[in-house]
Design a protein that fits this description.
mainly beta; globular
């Protein structure tokens, strides 16, 4: 049991905005073992809120001995009632200029090429240069992914957001 009273916690949040001037918003450091060389090291953890998205835990580990490192962002929210699908029509390089948060359960695909992103690494330069328009889809059965609307609060004419019911197999 913590020594902090319930009254002291009311109105406060464990998840704080990132602010370099606020000492309380700095990462928490905990001693941990390197999974590569088994030396004692430090893991840095920060509970924060991604604007227009969700609460997350950011963790960072680096071993000074063997130089192994690992950085992760983990969602701390539950699986949503419905999955989510972001579909955006890319017509110019400006259409690529948007923040994307993709959960572990999401997949990304390009409709014109008809296969998942990981399969067309060799074609990334053509996509990056937007030599031809294409449609990018991020589908997440957990409902915890996010794609920024760069013209918010106006409607993004290039993007549609839809929610869907998971299948029995996806719910398993």
């Amino acid at each position: 049991m913590s020594g902090v009273s319930e009254e002291a916690l009311q109105g406060t949040s464990l998840f704080r905005d990132i602010n370099t001037d606020d000492a309380e918003s700095q990462p928490t450091e905990i001693e941990s073992m390197c999974m590569n060389c088994h030396d004692n090291c430090v893991t840095r953890l920060m509970l924060t809120m991604i604007p227009f998205f969700k609460e997350v835990i950011i963790s960072s580990f680096r071993c000074d001995h063997c130089h192994w490192s690992n950085t992760e962002i983990q969602s701390v929210v539950h699986i949503q009632d419905q999955g989510i699908r972001y579909t955006v029509r890319i017509r110019s390089k400006d259409d690529l200029n948007r923040q994307v948060v993709r959960s572990d359960s999401a997949f990304t695909k390009n409709l014109e090429l008809n296969f998942e992103v990981d399969e067309f690494i060799n074609n990334l330069q053509k996509l990056k240069d937007v030599e031809e328009g294409f449609t990018l889809v991020i589908e997440d059965i957990s409902g915890n992914s996010f794609m920024e609307n760069p013209v918010a609060p106006q409607r993004d004419e290039a993007m549609t957001v839809s929610h869907f019911a998971r299948t029995t197999e996806q719910d398993a």
